[in-house]
Design a protein that fits this description.
Number of strands: 27
Oligomer: single chain
Shape: flat
Strand content: 25-35%
Number of helices: 10
Radius of gyration: 42 Å
Strand order of the largest sheet: 20-27-22-23-24-25-26-21
């Protein structure tokens, strides 16, 4: 490795090393510093993209908590006597009060053996034997080796790979007698169908007899929960095998605790809904504020925001603004109670100079009024999820295919005849598409490859031809959810695409910097070599001048 070149300045009296350093630094400022500044600007853009992406994710989370009726329409269930049962309600529950009478709780069966001296020492059998029982119609016969203790018998029962649902355990009654330790067989399932029967064994040191056989007595009977709903049925009871009941009252889950009577009251939790709407507005405003800040132009300083003019940011802003300010898909003026956010008190502040200029603001009084008067209509505005309907007398909506059929308003052309036929098109387009007629169900189905693919409509009167419309609604939150999924796509989303492009630009800048650093290193080396030769020459000249000066002085003295 070649030694580095240094300058002492002793030979010439000139600080040549400082000269070289100054020349090299100037070269770096001319060729590397501009590239580094350029690189930093792209890194700042990527950082800004990542911050915007984080805010979009937060907004997406808020939107997804509102994009279906089940999530948006929060219901609250209260009970008059919480010792009898507890209740929760989903959006499908009907508001109002219901009286519940509990006659008995569901429970599992328990069988307890007459007793054994101990759990760990005394064998239940001195010879190989068997232990059998039947649970819910399934019989198990287990082999019990000679010398098996009571605790080991428990393990044999519990570790049986074909155990149908019985757990064995031991109770010590504390009496200290020869029957103080009792084997307990417990059904794992509640309900009258899960009984333990036909207990028997051939264990010669284990008590026999008992009402259930094999030395066992039933101490708890398998039974169903029994209840009445508003006095129904007049005779008998509604029965369920579990104390957690989900299929008696629509949208209500009851957990039974004891016998007795209580009243469940279901109401719309407007406070929770409003809090969700506030979160929706706040997270949306964070995006608007951030974009406004990063795309602003300060005329006083003549300085532009880092993302001013960026097409991806403009795309995001315009797409989201269009959704929150427009009518949701499949909604109609005069037909739907609410068709935009402004009608429920949410609008953009257009007051120039206001602290909230350009942001969504909530008129709390108007929103409260809408939630009080028609919470279901507010829920549809936000969260309608492929809700289908038709106002035409001869046409009704039947079904769609999730993930295939697109929301929208569709025109249906029915042509009476033998056989009948039909066509469908998205309203606002000009091209009719063929639809499949099913004579048995009298339905038309949209063809694949079109927006109406999988849409099924019923012709209620096929005697005459007509053109009608069907709405397949998607609420504002749903549209935003779909848009945000596209914007946040890690492969094709605009931010991801630009971040990838900008990363490549930064790599290119790094390559240019690396090239310039190598070039300047060579330049520095050559400068040092030149100035080393210069210093050597100057040193030699200085020596010669000193010699000549000395000779001149000598001659003068003579």
């Amino acid at each position: 490795m070649a030694e580095s070149i240094t300058f002492t300045g002793l030979g010439s009296g000139i600080d040549l090393e400082s000269i070289v350093k100054a020349l090299v630094d100037n070269e770096k400022k001319r060729f590397i510093t501009p590239i580094e500044t350029w690189k930093t600007s792209w890194q700042d853009k990527i950082t800004a993209f990542q911050e915007l992406n984080t805010k979009l994710i937060s907004f997406s989370t808020a939107v997804k908590s509102l994009d279906t009726p089940a999530e948006f329409l929060v219901k609250r269930a209260s009970v008059s006597d919480s010792t009898v049962l507890s209740a929760t309600a989903t959006s499908s529950a009907f508001n109002g009060s219901t009286t519940i009478t509990i006659n008995q709780l569901s429970q599992c069966e328990k069988e307890i053996h007459a007793g054994h001296p101990d759990a760990q020492t005394t064998a239940v059998t001195s010879v190989a034997g068997t232990f059998s029982y039947t649970y819910s119609g399934m019989t198990r016969t287990l082999t019990v080796p000679a010398g098996t203790t009571l605790s080991q018998l428990v393990k044999i029962i519990n570790n049986d790979p074909q155990n149908p649902g019985v757990t064995a355990s031991i109770i010590d009654d504390g009496s200290g007698t020869s029957t103080a330790f009792h084997l307990v067989l417990s059904g794992n399932n509640t309900g009258a169908d899960y009984t333990i029967t036909m207990i028997s064994h051939t264990l010669n040191n284990f008590a026999t007899g008992g009402t259930s056989g094999g030395g066992f007595d039933e101490t708890q009977t398998a039974q169903n929960a029994q209840l009445k709903i508003d006095g129904y049925p007049a005779t008998g009871w509604i029965e369920r095998s579990t104390n957690t009941i989900t299929d008696v009252l629509t949208g209500i889950t009851m957990t039974l605790f004891s016998t007795g009577t209580t009243t469940i009251t279901v109401s719309t939790d407007t406070a929770a809904i409003k809090e969700n709407i506030k979160n929706f507005v706040n997270t949306f405003n964070e995006i608007r504020s951030y974009i406004k800040e990063k795309t602003a132009y300060n005329t006083a300083t003549d300085k532009a925001g880092i993302l001013l003019g960026n097409y991806a940011v403009d795309t995001i802003k315009n797409r989201l603004n269009a959704i929150v300010s427009s009518k949701p898909t499949g909604f109609r003026d005069g037909y739907d109670t609410y068709v935009n956010l402004m009608q429920i008190g949410i609008h953009t502040d257009a007051d120039i100079g206001s602290a909230t200029e350009g942001l969504l603001i909530i008129d709390n009084a108007k929103l409260d009024e809408a939630l009080s008067e028609n919470p279901d209509a507010v829920a549809r505005l936000f969260s309608a999820y492929f809700t289908g309907r038709s106002a035409h007398a001869k046409l009704s909506y039947e079904s769609y295919i999730d993930g295939i059929t697109e929301p929208g308003t569709y025109e249906i052309k029915f042509i009476a005849g033998v056989p009948p036929s039909g066509q469908i098109r998205l309203k606002g387009t000009t091209e009719w598409h063929p639809a499949t007629w099913d004579n048995a169900s009298q339905t038309l189905t949209g063809g694949y490859g079109y927006p109406e693919a999988g849409l099924v409509v019923k012709i209620t009167d096929p005697s005459t031809s007509f053109i009608g419309e069907v709405d397949l609604q998607r609420g504002i939150a749903g549209k935003l959810k779909d848009e945000l999924d596209a914007l946040l796509d890690s492969d094709d989303g605009p931010l991801a695409v630009l971040e990838d492009n900008y990363t490549n630009i930064i790599k290119s800048a790094d390559n240019k910097i690396e090239f310039e650093e190598k070039r300047i290193a060579i330049y520095e080396k050559r400068l040092k070599e030149r100035y080393a030769r210069l210093e050597s020459l100057l040193s030699e000249l200085n020596n010669q001048m000193s010699y000549l000066s000395m000779r001149v002085q000598q001659l003068t003295q003579k």
